[in-house]
Design goal:
2 copies of one chain form a homodimer. With 404 residues, chain A is of the alpha/beta class. Chain A has 15 helices and 14 strands. In chain A, a hairpin with a 2-residue loop joins strand 4 and strand 5. In chain A, helix 6 packs across helix 11. At the A-B interface, helix 1, helix 3, helix 4, helix 6 and helix 7 of A face helix 1, helix 2, helix 3, helix 4 and helix 6 of B.
Chain lengths: 404, 404
Amino acid sequence: MEDKLGHLYAERARTVKASLIRELLKMLLNPNVISFAGGWPDTETFPVDEMIEIANDVFRRRAACVFQYGTSEGLPELREALAARARDREGIPGIEPDQILITSGSQQGMELAGRVLIDPGDVVLVGLPTYFGATGAFRSYQAHLGGVPVDEAGMRMDGVEEEVRRHQREGRKVKLVYVQTNFHNPMGVTLSLERREKLLELAAAYDFLVMEDNPYGDLRYSGESLPALMALDREDRVIYARSFSKIFCPGIRLAWVAGEKALIRRMVISKQFVDVCTNTLSQHLVYEFIRKDSLDRRIDLNIAHYRSKRDLMLEMLDKHFPPEVEWTRPDGGFFVFVTLPEPLDAGELLKDAIDREVVFVAGQPFFLDGSGANTLRLSFTGAPADRIEEGIRRLADLVRSKLG
Amino acid sequence: MEDKLGHLYAERARTVKASLIRELLKMLLNPNVISFAGGWPDTETFPVDEMIEIANDVFRRRAACVFQYGTSEGLPELREALAARARDREGIPGIEPDQILITSGSQQGMELAGRVLIDPGDVVLVGLPTYFGATGAFRSYQAHLGGVPVDEAGMRMDGVEEEVRRHQREGRKVKLVYVQTNFHNPMGVTLSLERREKLLELAAAYDFLVMEDNPYGDLRYSGESLPALMALDREDRVIYARSFSKIFCPGIRLAWVAGEKALIRRMVISKQFVDVCTNTLSQHLVYEFIRKDSLDRRIDLNIAHYRSKRDLMLEMLDKHFPPEVEWTRPDGGFFVFVTLPEPLDAGELLKDAIDREVVFVAGQPFFLDGSGANTLRLSFTGAPADRIEEGIRRLADLVRSKLG
């Protein structure tokens, strides 16, 4: 496309690249395609009847609020309900409503954190691999991004310390470590308790903040829950991002971010100039779902639904994939991460897979350093259960043909 | 509030100040207060019955889309409908759907324009006075803001040219002129046709872009409509921001921005890392309102409703206010702008007004240069019609007592 006004663009706009996944998703309108690509919830899980019932009630009863501007912080009763949930269900005892900001998706929470914290050249550490929405948000503020390896127990803390010290030696300040604690995107792995504690120690020792991103945490299918970083934090160094997109419905664009009071206040003020306030309709709808205990019932149903899909995908991988291929076995969330034997290239594989009407996301874009060419991410949530085996079989055939 | 993490904030976060109006609004929960403060639509205008009817239909019929992620550009059929409206109703003949980006309120359109265009130190010209949401958005990107006087015919073009040349001499580039074309916030004035044409001439001559902000344009109560800058533009230099917040419901946080294709594409890519996509529920609801011609019926009802409120407020100002006070007579929108005789200070007046349970917005925060201490903004939309006379009488008494 011709950039006829390109000479007037800001420097930051020249370097931002489109999210590859979101670009890929636009090609997926073909209903024959079996998609393991998007991190999208299964549309079958949307609580349509109850949404209609609640909309009828709340649109009528609270019209003057539902359709009007709200405060930038978010609906007071929703912030209170979320604080109560954080106290009761996540072991974050002292949390107060004014430590919570309702956001337009958790992407906005990351964006606002970047806005409030990142000066050009400040270092943000992220996983290798990591969710690239976060990378994109921090990059908008000219963050210097550093990568830390992720293994089966999550982000490596020896890697964090090493990177912090290296940047320190080179005269740069690590301000923020972005970490996905549960069912990591794209790897599906969970940060161990030992590493959680170590991360907070490092944050105190080297004076940085931690952005704990936990959109999938409520969707645990096996194993024991671990305490949130924010529950372990004694220094107010954690900014905790949660979301309704994965556990409920993404179309309502509702998430929240919690943290130290004055920092959250800064983010609220910034939000006034970003989008004024979060959609009030969505806030009222979700508040009613929480008030009636329907959100928790919905989450329980989703856990059962996705657990069987995860089990099915792992079973089909075991059954069909050649032994040279490795993959993670997630305890929750949406993703299985596959490592192909080198020198197989997942980007090349994807081109052939599209021809066979099965798609996934190649792993390389999740790696800051350009590694991961032989990796790929499979989502087990979006495809219908009765198509998962067929999709995995097509991929397995392809991989086998590449292996020769 | 103690900023215990303040040493970790970004430079930009240290300088952002809270929107005074949004702070004031939080104090307005007292139902005895007569408010001429917020630029909020009258809650009486919200189409509750039809919203419920449409929600019932569209939630059921299109659940898999309504509750799911959408594309960052916005719902395709809504973009098409908005392009068709721009062609048919605003005389913008060639506009195509991919020149339109659906945003989470028009504040986001300004934010994205700032993000894509403004490098630190680039100049953005705004009115004296101007809507300070725009100022805040551009300031986040370290824009150098310049002020241009606004009079009864809108922003002064001799002032624009003078400022552009002055900055040029001083080595700064004017990249953007932000202008409100219809029923200016806070002044209520409309940019004359002659000045619209002149602004586009200047944009071409000095190579800058124009952000045309037009949230109130559909709410004209008297006089003839003027063509949008975008309809007059032959060089693709206009970024046109429209909104459903003032003409319909702000709670749905829905707006759109139109412009040159490659520039809009840059804004779409930026939006991926800002909030992924705009609320899909809201987009489906509004699309149905447009498809059924209900939006236009609603706008017509709102015009009649607000016209009578405007007439009433102007009548009451004529009747009660002392002759030393001056005010604008808007042809549309939400606001009357009042100039008190100097040295009266509207900020001081507001403190006393709060005690008498009537509130407005002092004018000074709308002026970049700190002038306007003797001005104030009255909104005639929010207060119930049967309270407008009482509110104006209280204010008039106060002004009279100050005049001594």
